[in-house]
From TrEMBL:
E.C. no: 6.3.2.4
Protein family (similarity comment): Belongs to the D-alanine--D-alanine ligase family.
GO annotation, biological process: cell wall organization; peptidoglycan biosynthetic process; regulation of cell shape
Source domain of life: Bacteria
Residue ranges of domain ATP-grasp in the record: 151-353
Listed pathway(s): Cell wall biogenesis; peptidoglycan biosynthesis
Organism in which the protein naturally occurs: Aerophobetes bacterium
List of residues binding ATP: 147, 187-189, 195-196, 225-232, 319-320
Active site (UniProt): 19, 195, 331
Name of protein: D-alanine--D-alanine ligase
Cell location: Cytoplasm
Keyword set includes Metal-binding: yes
Length: 366
């Protein structure tokens, strides 16, 4: 880092996955909540073909506006004051080559859900370049994104998970045997997607093969799970001075069959999110403590959203983790952090400072 300059934070967003638009919205929230008196931002858009572009300030809004269906949720009156961005990048829309990155930035803030952010690909590249990343390192990201691997580690730590089976594209499977073992209804999921993309809820045997084949369009391995009947509870965990801290809980009320892509993002979706006040105090504490256990078992750093089901009998069942959770207007993570007393600007500062404190190669990788 050049001593006289503020640390340069590369904010990466977009990416060539189906979650491109969601990432752009989360990046917009992040850009607005970075402390611009402390850091210079280098906004890097990865387009749908995988090309990297450093955006000059005037190009950010039009770029984000390309994602029409979601951008409506962002207040169009908001704009970015001059002086927030590194002036050296103001003039260009140039291709940002990875070999130049090391000379140009001090820390990478990857706000890309799914590939190539949340799965650890970019964190691996940055760790190779000796550049710290905000949040988890490549290993925790790739395991956290893999729904089967993360379940195995979490259940190995003594935490309840739904009954499940894995099916590989290259291997034959028996629909009858799966239904006999797991019982209907079932959830069929690509192992490494997000935003409910490729996920089906299966109510009958006939629908199972179709749902498995659909999920194979997104990954070579598919997870099939028994349905857990319960409330959907999310826990934001933030690393503060080296300790994992659980924030007040959040709840999703999907208002439909399950929390599908359309339930998450359609304008007219009946889904709502809230900070529940009616959970049994013992179960509340158990959810927070279990979230911390999951965070630690998976070697998470910086932040993580840990999702559970809470049954009528207050059984806590792990669902999945999100190392780069959504920061859209409906996302629970910023609300839960705020309820703990961590404002948006405090959260991004905490994450950037945690990242800048990573100095050795092991802390960059993990
Ligand atoms: N085993 C399950 N039992 C009940 N509902 C489930 C189960 N698995 C997934 N769901 C529903 O499907 C949604 C998406 O599944 P999830 O594993 O969280 O995928 P994603 O990573 O895409 O968010 C969940 O929010 C929940 O509504
Ligand atoms: Mg989920």
């Amino acid at each position: 880092m050049i001593a006289s300059l503020k640390p340069r934070v590369a904010l990466l967003f977009g990416g060539h996955s189906l979650e491109h638009s969601v990432s752009c919205i989360s990046a917009w929230w992040t850009l607005q909540h970075i402390d611009h008196s402390k850091y210079l931002v280098v906004p890097i858009a990865i387009d749908k073909k995988g090309k990297w572009h450093v955006l000059k300030m005037s190009a950010i809004k039009p770029y984000l506006s390309l994602n029409k269906s979601l951008i409506e949720q962002v207040d169009s009156e908001e704009s970015i004051p001059t002086g927030w961005l590194d002036p050296r990048f103001e003039s260009g829309n140039e291709l940002f080559s990875p070999s130049l990155i090391k000379k140009s930035i001090d820390v990478a803030y990857v706000m890309i859900h799914g590939f190539p952010g949340e799965d650890g690909s970019l964190a691996g590249l940055f760790s190779y370049l000796d550049i710290p990343v905000v949040g988890c390192g490549a290993m925790a990201l790739s395991i956290g994104m893999h729904k089967i691997m993360s379940k195995q580690i979490v259940s190995g730590a003594g935490i309840d998970v739904a009954k499940y089976q894995a099916v590989k594209k290259s291997n034959p499977y028996s629909v009858d045997a799966i239904v006999d073992t797991l019982e209907l209804p079932l959830f069929v999921k690509p192992v490494n997607s997000g935003s409910s993309i490729g996920i089906s809820k299966v109510h009958n045997k006939e629908g199972l093969r179709e749902s498995i084949e659909l999920a194979f369009n997104f990954s070579n391995e598919v997870l099939i799970e028994s349905m857990v009947y319960g409330r959907e509870i999310e826990v934001a965990v933030v690393e503060i001075e080296g300790r994992a801290v659980a924030c007040p809980l959040g709840e999703i009320i999907s208002g439909s069959d399950f929390y599908s892509y359309s339930a998450k993002y359609d304008k007219n979706s009946p889904a709502t999110t809230r900070l529940p006040q009616d959970i049994d105090p013992g179960a509340y504490k158990n959810l927070q403590e279990t979230a911390i256990k999951v965070f630690e078992a998976l070697s998470f750093k910086g932040m993580g959203r840990i999702d559970f089901f809470l049954t009528k009998k207050n059984r806590v069942v792990f669902n999945e983790v999100n190392a780069i959770p959504g920061f859209t207007p409906i996302s629970l993570f910023p609300m839960m952090a705020k309820a703990h007393g961590i404002s948006g600007i405090e959260l991004t500062t905490l994450l950037i400072e945690n990242a800048l404190a990573k100095t050795d190669s092991l802390s960059l990788l993990c």
